């Protein structure tokens, strides 16, 4: 166990799996130079045949990854969330639908690594938090780690998984640090939420970059003798709703923090599940702390108003307490 | 059409062409009887897929498009399962979840037909990538239309295949129209095969009514691909004898195709051409050819019976095959 950066943890996950299985290879734009960071050292270790620089052709190489997976390889594709729109047809019409549409004949062990930059003045074309779109499509596993250890463990599970997986790598977390197991057998299962902090008064479900804010909010509330349970679902498809429902059963209060835009966000879905299945456990209206429903403005004075913050989560917690 | 292709292969090609033809004549009958909805017929274009697939092995892959019955049957798909799929039955290739536009048989290298125009072109390219990365010798081929040739996915895949030197054969079925739009109005070059130059790969223009010419052009491309010499673009100039899909007969009235143009192409029926060349060269007798047609007809009739007797999928199938392992229903 050593302290590692989130970004290094992602890279550890990829390189360990590449060492373990010759069918795993990485492809993407400028991956040999590791422009986005998580592929540092991979080209040196694995060479040209396993680390492929692609042309700027998201439709072309997303589809090529799907085809390679369909005949038995395990591609890992690096891209940014914002460039996924260009290759959407391959993600939706092929990756997501082939298995079902062909009656189970297609097995597609492909991972799309969607680096999710936002919050740094990149403006509307480079700040997408698009995982709810992919939750809606179906047929894709949607992963959003919130800690460095989960970044590694979930990456390994994603690569070993036999379905198409989209790994949303939250840019605001890439520089965060935490203990990351060195053990190459360490993995984090899909569909098992992480209770980051147990509590009894209010449940806060926090997604991706909201996780540190939720933990900070819980620490602050502890000073006021409010016990907040913080849950990171870690994977949105599959979603561990039992852990969330059990927590709400105990606390009767729910806040969901989600960096995605609030309409049809992951938070919307989680609140809808709680509304349907645990309505009578609730002692107060549920609160959604998601991004404002706007495109990301360039000016920092505006952008900082958009995303969930620690203080926004605190305010929502207080609302549930009346 | 003189050739040194073996008699067995010629007979196989004729048989597969007849299987496609009778299959689709049967579908037309079933459509008229209200048994199925509108489907895209391949009638008139059979030589393209049959000639091409005859040059490939079972271990090679193909992918195709919405005009989707010819490619799998040419690659050796089972007629019963194909017919059951079109009727939406549990014994269909995709257990009734794919239907006419999505026939697939992974066991004989059919990676599936795609309803989104050009969407399977990158996928087939990826199968070729897998072949190269693993040092295998299988190749892949993809069938797409003249309309599809204008899609970005198509251009991206061809460029990718060329820079990575992948064993893939791009087979453009230029039936000259995308629904009602002539390729002359949408393609900036004289021949779609000319575009190969832009990707630094061979571009070959082939008479798509001539199964033997298709076989030979594809065999050469397959050989190049297996030798590590990269992709080829084949443009098969052909014609669909029927309308864009069953149910669209009414658009005939828009006169996007002249009656005499249709008549002229119908005179170049790919089945007649192959039969004639084989009979004239003394390879087979007309009676042998008739027997092949009759056998294909019988197989199609049997497939229709099989399909009609297959149950529709029940509710327990609804959530199956979304994922590799079953997941809780949300
Ligand atoms: C991306 C996309 N756009 C539009 C359509 C609707 N559509 C289906 S077939 C077709 C024409 C395709 O023409 P071509 O590629 O030449 O194939 P053909 O039907 O002639 O065999 C169109 C426009 C579609 N299926 N997919
Ligand atoms: Mg066409």
Count of helical regions of chain A: 13
Number of domains of chain B: 1
* Secondary structure tally, helices of chain B: 10
The share of residues in extended strands of chain A comes to 15-25%
Give a short account of the largest sheet of chain A. 7 strands, mixed
- Class based on secondary structure composition and strand pairing of chain A: alpha/beta
What string gives the helices and strands of chain B in order?
Answer: HHEHHEHEHEEEEHEHHH
Compute the separation of the termini of chain B in Å.
59 Å
The top-level CATH class of the largest domain in chain A is Alpha Beta
Low-confidence stretches of chain B: none
- Report the CATH superfamily of chain B: Thiamin diphosphate (ThDP)-binding fold, Pyr/PP domains
Descriptive account of the structure:
The complex is a heterodimer of chains A (322) and B (330). Chain A has 13 helices and 14 strands. In chain A, the strands form three sheets. Chain A has a seven-stranded mixed beta sheet with strand order 3-2-4-5-7-6-12, sandwiched between helices. Chain A has a five-stranded mixed beta sheet with strand order 9-11-10-13-14, with helices on both faces. Chain A is globular. Chain A has helices at 6-20, 42-46, 58-70, 81-84, 88-96, 98-101, 131-137, 148-160, 211-222, 241-251, 266-277, 300-303, 310-321, and strands spanning 2-5, 24-28, 51-53, 74-80, 111-116, 141-143, 165-170, 177-180, 194-197, 202-206, 228-232, 235-237, 254-261, 287-291. With 322 residues, chain A is of the alpha/beta class. The model of chain A has no long low-confidence stretch (mean pLDDT 97). In chain A, helix 8 links the parallel strand 6 (141-143) and strand 7. By secondary structure, chain B is α/β, with parallel strands linked by helices. Chain B has one domain (7-305): Thiamin diphosphate (ThDP)-binding fold, Pyr/PP domains (Rossmann fold, 3-Layer(aba) Sandwich), CATH 3.40.50.970. Chain B has ten helices and eight strands. A six-stranded parallel beta sheet of chain B has the order 2-1-3-4-8-7, sandwiched between helices. A two-stranded antiparallel ribbon of chain B has the order 5-6. In chain B, helix 1 runs antiparallel to helix 2. Chains A and B meet through helix 3, helix 5 and helix 6 of A and helix 5 and helix 6 of B. The structure holds thiamine diphosphate (TPP) and magnesium ion (MG). The site of thiamine diphosphate has 15 residues of chain B, from strand 5.
């Amino acid at each position: 166990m050593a302290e590692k950066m989130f970004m290094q943890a992602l890279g550890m996950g990829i390189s360990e799996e590449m060492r373990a299985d010759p069918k795993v290879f990485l492809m993407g734009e400028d991956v040999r130079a590791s422009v986005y960071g998580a592929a540092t050292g991979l080209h040196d270790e694995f060479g040209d045949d396993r680390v492929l620089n692609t042309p700027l052709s998201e439709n072309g190489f997303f589809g090529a990854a799907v085809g390679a997976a369909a005949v038995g390889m395990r591609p890992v594709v690096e891209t940014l969330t914002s460039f996924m729109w260009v290759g959407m047809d391959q993600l939706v019409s092929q990756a997501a639908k082939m298995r079902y549409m062909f009656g189970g004949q297609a097995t597609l062990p492909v991972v799309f690594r969607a680096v999710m930059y936002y919050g740094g003045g990149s403006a509307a074309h480079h700040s997408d938090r698009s995982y709810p779109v992919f939750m809606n499509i179906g047929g894709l596993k949607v992963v959003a780690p919130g800690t460095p250890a989960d970044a590694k463990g979930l990456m390994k599970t994603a690569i070993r998984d036999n379905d198409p997986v989209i790994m949303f790598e939250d840019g605001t977390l890439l520089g965060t640090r935490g203990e990351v197991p060195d053990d190459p057998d360490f993995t984090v299962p899909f569909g098992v939420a992480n209770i980051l902090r147990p509590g009894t008064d209010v449940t806060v479900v926090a997604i991706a970059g909201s996780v540190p804010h939720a933990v900070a909010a819980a620490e602050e509330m502890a000073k006021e003798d409010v016990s907040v349970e913080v849950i990171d679902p870690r994977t949105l498809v599959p979603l561990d709703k039992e852990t969330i429902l059990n927590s709400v059963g105990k606390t009767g209060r729910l806040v969901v923090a989600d960096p995605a835009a609030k309409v049809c966000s992951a938070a919307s879905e989680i609140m809808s599940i709680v509304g349907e299945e645990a309505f009578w456990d609730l002692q107060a209206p549920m609160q959604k702390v998601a991004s404002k429903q706007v495109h990301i403005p360039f000016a920092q004075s505006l952008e900082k108003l958009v995303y969930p913050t620690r203080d926004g989560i605190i305010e929502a917690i207080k609302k549930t307490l009346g | 059409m003189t050739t040194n292709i073996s008699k067995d292969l010629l007979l196989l090609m004729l048989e597969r062409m007849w299987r496609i033809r009778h299959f689709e004549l049967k579908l037309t009958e079933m459509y008229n009887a209200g048994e199925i909805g509108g489907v895209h017929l391949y009638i008139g274009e059979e030589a393209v897929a049959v000639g091409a697939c005859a040059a490939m092995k079972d271990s090679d892959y193909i992918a195709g498009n919405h005009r989707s019955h010819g490619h799998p049957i040419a690659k050796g798909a089972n007629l019963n399962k194909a017919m059951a799929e079109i009727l939406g039955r549990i014994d269909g290739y995709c257990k009734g979840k794919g239907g006419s536009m999505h026939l697939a048989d992974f066991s004989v290298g059919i990676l599936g037909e795609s309803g989104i125009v050009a969407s399977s072109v990158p996928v087939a390219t990826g199968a070729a990538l897998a072949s190269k990365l693993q040092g295998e010798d299988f190749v892949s081929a993809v069938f797409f239309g003249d309309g599809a040739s204008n899609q970005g996915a198509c251009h991206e895949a061809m460029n990718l295949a060329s820079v990575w030197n992948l064993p893939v054969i791009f087979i453009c079925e230029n039936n000259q129209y995308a629904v009602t739009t002539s390729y002359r109005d949408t393609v900036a070059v004289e021949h779609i095969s000319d575009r190969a130059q832009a990707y630094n790969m061979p571009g070959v223009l082939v008479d798509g009514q001539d199964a033997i010419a298709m076989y030979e052009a594809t065999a050469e491309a397959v050989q190049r691909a297996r030798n590590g010499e990269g992709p080829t673009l084949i443009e098969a100039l052909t014609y669909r004898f029927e309308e864009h899909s069953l149910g669209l007969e009414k658009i005939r009235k828009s006169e996007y195709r002249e009656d005499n143009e249709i008549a002229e192409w119908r005179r170049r029926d790919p089945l007649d051409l192959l039969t004639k060349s084989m009979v004239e060269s003394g390879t087979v007798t007309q009676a042998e050819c008739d027997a092949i047609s009759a056998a294909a007809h019988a197989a199609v009739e049997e497939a229709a019976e099989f399909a009609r007797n297959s149950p529709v999928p029940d509710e327990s199938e609804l959530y199956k095959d979304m994922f590799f392992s079953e997941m809780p229903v949300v």
